Amino acid sequence: MADKSIMTINGKTRLCGVIGNPVEHTMSPIIHNTLSEYYDKNLIYVPFYVKDGDIEAAIKGAHALNILGLNVTVPYKMDVIPYLVDIDDLAKRIGAVNTLVRCENGYKGYNTDVLGLGRAFEISGIKVNGNTVVVLGAGGASRAVVFLCESLGAAKIYLFNRTIDKAEALANEVNEYSGRDLVIPMLMSDIEKIEENDIIAIQATSVGLHPNNEDVVTTCDAFYSKISKAYDLIYKPTETKFMRLVKEHGGEAYNGLSMLNYQGVIAYELWNEMEISEEAAKITFDKLMGAVD
Ligand code: NAP
C-alpha cells in the first residue's frame, strides 16, 4: 500500500461515485477510496444524491463531466436502464444495473451485485453446481440470486415467498429462460415441506435487518436441520437470527458483507480495467466490517 494518508487531488484526478436517494448511508466510498490508496491510483469516489425525476439529467451530466464510473443504488437500479448506451447480458436478464462504466457516447450498465455474490459464494465455499438451493424472498435481490444460481448450475431451486404471486412470476421467468422446471415457487408458510437434505439456503428477504435484529422469516427446526451452508444477504447486524439458527442446527452461515465488498471490487476492476488482488479485497472487507455498527 502506498505510504500516504492524505489523497492528493490535482488536475489528473478521476472521479467515480454512487447515485441514489437516500445515499448518506452508503459504505461504498470505503471500498473504492481504500483501493485507490492501496494501488496508488489518482481516483476518488463520492456519494451523489439524485432527487426523484433527475436520473436522466444525472447520467448525462456525469458523462459530460468526464466521470469515469458510477454505482447505482436504491431506487434507481431499474430506472437508469433507458439512459444507457449498452447493457451487459446478465444485467439485462436480471433487469437491474448497479454499475455504469464509461464508454465513448455514454455508459454501459453491469450488475456487479450478482457478480459479487458469485465471488462471495466462491470465497465461502458455497458450491451451487448440482445442488439443491432454497431461496427465501422474491424481491429485487432475490431475482439476482435466482438468476445467479441458474447460471451456476443449481439442480433445483425452491423459491419461498410470503406473497406467492411474486415467487411464481420469478419462477416462470427463470424457467422459461433456462428451458427447464428448475425453480419451484412455494409459500413461506410451507417451508417444512422441503424433503432434501444437505441444502444451500440463501436468505434474500429484508426480515432481520437492523434494527429488527430478532426477526426471522421462519423458526422451523425441520428446515434449519437440512441446511449445510447458508448465506444471508443482510450484513447489518453481522449475525442475523437466521444465521444463528443455521449455526445452532450444525450448518455454516455467512452474512452479506462479502457480496457488498465484491460488488465494489468488481466495479473498481471494470472502471480501471485491472484485477484486484485477494489481499486488497481483504483489506476493504475488514474496513467494511469495522464500519458496520
Ligand atoms: P425488496 O425488493 O423490498 O424485497 C423484500 C423481500 O422480503 C420480499 O420477498 C418480501 O416478501 C420479503 N419480506 C419483507 N417483509 C417480510 C415479512 N415481514 N415476512 C416475510 N417476508 C417479508 O428488497 P430487496 O432489494 O430484495 O432486498 C432484500 C434484502 O437483501 C435486504 O435486506 C437488503 O438489505 C439485502 N441486500 C443486500 C445486498 C448486499 O450487497 N449484501 C444487496 C442487495 C440487497 P413479499 O414479496 O411477500 O413482500
What does this structure look like?
The structure is a single chain. This protein has 293 residues and is an alpha/beta fold. It contains 10 helices and 12 strands. The strands form 2 sheets. The chain has a 6-stranded mixed sheet with strand order 2-1-3-5-6-4, sandwiched between helices. A 6-stranded parallel sheet has the order 9-8-7-10-11-12, sandwiched between helices. It is globular and about 60 Å long. The model has no long low-confidence stretch (mean pLDDT 96). NADP nicotinamide-adenine-dinucleotide phosphate binds next to helix 5 and helix 9.
Structural class: alpha/beta
- Report strand order across the widest sheet: 2-1-3-5-6-4
How many strands?
Answer: 12
**Helix and strand string, N-terminal first?**
EHEHEEHEEHEHEHEEHEHEHH
Could you report the average pLDDT, rounded to the nearest whole number?
96
The level of helicity is: 25-40%
Termini separation (Å)? 26 Å
Alpha carbon gyration radius: 19 Å
Uncertain stretches of 5 or more adjacent residues? none
Which cofactors or ions or other ligands sit in this model? NADP nicotinamide-adenine-dinucleotide phosphate
SS element count, helices: 10
Percent in strands: 15-25%
Inertia-based shape: globular
Major sheet attributes: 6 strands, mixed
Q: Key terms for this structure?
A:
293 residues, alpha/beta, six-stranded mixed β-sheet, six-stranded parallel β-sheet, 10 helices, globular
